[in-house]
What we know:
The complex is a heterodimer.
Chain A: E1 2-3, E2 10-11, H1 56-86, H2 93-111, H3 116-139, H4 143-168, H5 174-200, H6 207-231, H7 235-239
Helix pairs in contact in A: 1-2, 2-3, 3-4, 4-5, 5-6
Chain B: E1 10-11, E2 21-22, H1 27-30, E3 35-37, H2 45-48, E4 56-63, H3 69-80, E5 88-92, E6 97-101, E7 108-110, H4 121-124, E8 129-134, E9 137-143, H5 149-166, H6 192-195, E10 224-231, H7 232-241, H8 246-264, H9 267-272, E11 276-284, E12 298-301, E13 304-306, H10 314-328, H11 331-346, H12 348-352, H13 355-369, E14 376-384, H14 388-391, E15 394-400, E16 410-417, E17 420-427, H15 433-444, E18 449-455
Helix pairs in contact in B: 3-5, 8-10, 8-15
Amino acid sequence: MITCQHCGVQLEENMNYCPLCGQPVEKEKSPVSGPVRVRTRETFPKRYSRIYQLNTTQKRKLIWEVTSIILLSGILGVILLNLIFNQSLTWSVYPLVLGLSVFAYITLIIYWTGKRWKKILGSFVVTFLMLFFIDFVAQGIDWALLVALPLLLGTYGIGLALYLVAHRMKYYGFNLLAYLFLGLAVLLMLLEGTLSYYHHNALMLDWSIIVLISFLPVDAVLFYIHFRLKKNPDLKKIFHI
Amino acid sequence: MGGKSQYWCSVVYPYHIKDMIEQEEPIEEVIEDFWLRLDNAAKMYPAILSREFTTVFRFSAGLREPVRIQPFFRAVRRVENRFPYYKMKLKRGFFWYYLEHHNTPVPVQEDIRGLCRGFGEEEDQGLLFRILVRERTISVEFSHILTDGHGAIEFFKALLITYFSELGLTVPDDLSYFQPETRIDSDELEDSFHRYFKKHLPKRIHLPRAFHLPYPIKRTARFSVMKAILSLDSVKRQAREYAVSITEYLVSVYLYSLQQVFREMNERQQRKSHKLLRIQVPVNLRNIFPSRSMRNFTLFVLPEIDLRLGYYSFREILKKVHHLMQLEKDEKLISRTISRNVGSERDKILRSLPLFVKSMILQTQYYNLGANLYSGELTNLGKIDLSPGLNDRIESFTFVPPPPNKALKVDCGVIGFKDKLVMTFGNITRTKAFEQRFLQTLSREGLLYQSENIQEEAL
């Protein structure tokens, strides 16, 4: 009887590989009896043969490499086509900006292991730069600062607020849906306000107020269901038609 | 493995258990259609599952010799087919989740990763239980969606005994366990909650919220496990001295330790927290209602003390716990809880809601009818006995309870084997203060223990 040096189970004499851990049997080194030093939980060096056996870092690297090759070759392809047919860079600037932005997002997600708020800030900067350059190549700087920036700030702010609210919840229920509606209503107000300021140089709120007012009773019902359930769990009573 | 005609299985319709369709055909021919509704207790779990709150519990047996892998593989192949109702995948239906049979050999894994992790498609082939081996230790981990402690321990016992028989050891003829080549009884598949459901029982009184440990929880990689080994005889002697059972004794220690934690909190914290200390103690309903079900059939009794009435001495707690547990194990009271749980499931409106809405409701219900109502959980699986000859081959048994939820923070599992009582504390907080308090209480009672951390981090 021999003992696997990796997982510590006993193997038959004719076994060359341990069927449990998959490691080759080191027959010369294996003592017949006596203590065996087996690897501890998750500290051993891994060998990989299939994609699904890769660890997280290896998977991330693989995803980054594959997407980078696809994106960069795509960008080069469209630039070449643009140059061949138009002898200058015209329409290919848009896929170039979009492709580089996607590349920046993926790099950010895969390789930025720092604090979460830094990642969020990074994604904000990338998104804004993408919109800025699209605006820039289209007609000079026009809507990027007046529309895109406030809307982007608003979206991130509302998203962050919803995240913090959800994070503080002990459990998710209808209250989460209610907060989502509320966030959406505020975002729509911001959208209308920004657009009206951009077009008319004045803050005019019209339809977004109606949306907000329509959402309020829905929110009230959702909060009612959520907090009513907390006190009285009789579902039949609450959902009785 | 036995021939084709030796076992069969059924599709179970819980609302009509008596009219259960029993297709007396070989399993290979009906296996494509073999699926099960989740039992009443399991219905809750898919809605509340998360990466950390996995509802996965573990049994481990530490053997005297390293595991011989080839006989062990043979034992696994024999045993897994005796329990086809555990080789299931969780699937999403439109109205409910359901279990679908997955007819593939159960993978035996090397036990090197964290305890009680959730199940994955790649690693576990989507199954809801896993078999783990490392050196001298054999373990099984089960999702509560499949079964409770009783079902899992019966599977584990069958696996160990079959392994020993593969090693050539003599298994006593009168030893009661699920032998691999025996016919599967349709009762094993039944959802016994539906069988013992009674209509029109009065509603259970809604309980007020209970005290929760004030410790902050870790942000990630939260589940840590600590084990304490005590002398079973000493604990038994101590419990007998107070004329209570071992479970009642340990629950009293739990409550006393919680009271100590409460007393050590500052005045502001005390004012803000709930003052009911309540422990959830699972009860195997098979001891109350005749059932051979191998799926979930467990409910809880909730012994409590109310600190608004003043502080309790240990003896006072013992007395209260003893009487409350005896009272709450009453068949009629348990029937009322079954009636409430099954009644909600049968509710026509609730049944007709799409799954995602239902999941939100179930999640709310879980906290309101469960987690918020108790301060601690203690599961005692009792004493394991395989027979003197086979017991000699095993050094110890360990039961690791599922990772506790965010409200509960710490839970406790107990299992006895030979002269040892092994207590295991699952913890997701940044401190081991409660465990220390618990063990101090045991020391004060004159009970000696050995403790060790068996997992410091990570799921």
